[in-house]
Amino acid sequence: MKNMLKNCFCCTSHEDHEPTISAHKKTDYPWNMYTLKELVHATNNFHNDNKIGEGGFGSVYWGRTSKGTELAVKRLKSINAKAEMEFAVEVEILGRVRHKNLLGLKGFYAGGDERLIVYDYMPNHSLLTHLHGQLAVDCLLDWPRRMSIAIGSAEGLAYLHHEVTPHIIHRDIKASNPLEKLPGGIKRDIIQWATPFVQKDSYELIADPRLKGRFDHAQLKVVVKIALACTDSNPENRPSMLEVVEWLKSGIGGRRKEIRIVKDRVDETEDEDDFCDDDTDYYETFDMKKHSGRVPKMPSRTR
Ligand SMILES: Nc1ncnc2c1ncn2[C@@H]1O[C@H](COP(=O)(O)OP(=O)(O)OP(=O)(O)O)[C@@H](O)[C@H]1O
């Protein structure tokens, strides 16, 4: 693994002062080694107007190559041992990752004081922006899309945990790091915040108020329970990501199927059953035990 990176650095270092125009494609690796000139040109010399984000290690710029391909270029802000490590790990790890739900590495440049990582450009902004930022105001991310994102994210993580060799543990998944500030400046995490509602079986109070009640109650319970299982203080009790995907798909997908079937029946009989809000039957039939021996504790039901 280290050798691979070392080779990469060797291949690019000669371009420090003499960048060439074309990007090299090494056929044995699935990414490009860009020239500095090409990335400077693509990002308008890392112009502030091209800046699309800022992370712990540097700024991210939007760019377009001479062939018209859109890029996101992360420019590490300083070259020290920590930044070199971040660069090496990101290039090495992302270089091995190929999944429809995960950001792809397009390539990189390393030379002199520049460390640039090139990704596919993601035009749809972050989940955080859609949930809590400007886009949340402009266009509400509806419940079905939220559930698709949950399943898609879980699938991406399951791929990292179970399919890539060696396995990859991300350890920093976030739409943000949701912390609620309490009076006195104490912070508690989202699990501490949600647990009392779960204990009182008041799941609807956990849902994003922006949804104005337009969510599926049974699906909400399923995802909250899975989230609680994933954050169990005893790691032994936490499900694998494969189990999480299975639970989400059977819980959410099964629920969708059930709604369709019930809807068809309702359409046929003109019966006015309130199938969307009455989740009791479905909830009782969603049995995580069927899918795994390790089952999150169900809160006591009050009705
Ligand atoms: N491929 C991309 N396409 C579009 N925007 C991106 C892309 N990569 C990053 N960004 C934007 O740049 C921001 C910073 O990304 P970066 O990966 O540096 O930070 P991070 O992962 O949020 O932070 P940290 O480095 O602290 O883990 C992101 O929040 C996002 O808004």
Task: Tell me what you see in this structure.
With 303 residues, this protein is α+β, with helices and mostly antiparallel strands. The protein contains ten helices and nine strands. It has helices spanning 2-13, 36-42, 81-96, 127-131, 134-138, 143-163, 190-199, 217-230, 241-269, 280-285, and strands spanning 24-25, 32-33, 51-54, 58-64, 70-76, 105-111, 114-120, 179-181, 187-189. A seven-stranded mixed sheet has the order 1-2-6-7-5-4-3, sandwiched between helices. Helix 6 packs antiparallel against helix 9 and helix 8 (217-230) packs antiparallel against helix 9. The chain is globular, with a radius of gyration of 24 Å. The model is unreliable at 1-27 and 270-303 (pLDDT under 50). This is Protein kinase domain-containing protein. ATP binds at residue 74. Keywords: ATP-binding, Kinase, Nucleotide-binding, Serine/threonine-protein kinase, Transferase.
Percent range for β-strand residues:
5-15%
- Element string (H = helix, E = strand): HEEHEEEHEEHHHEEHHHH
Tell me the Rg in angstroms: 24 Å
Ligand species: adenosine-5'-triphosphate
**C-alpha termini separation:** 56 Å
The biggest sheet, with number of strands, parallel, antiparallel or mixed sense and barrel status, is:
7 strands, mixed
Mean pLDDT over all positions: 76
Helix content: 40-55%
Form type: globular
**Number of DSSP E strands:** 9
Q: Count of helical segments?
A: 10
Uncertain runs are 1-27, 270-303
Please state the structural category.
alpha+beta
Describe the strand arrangement of the main beta sheet, using strand numbers.
1-2-6-7-5-4-3
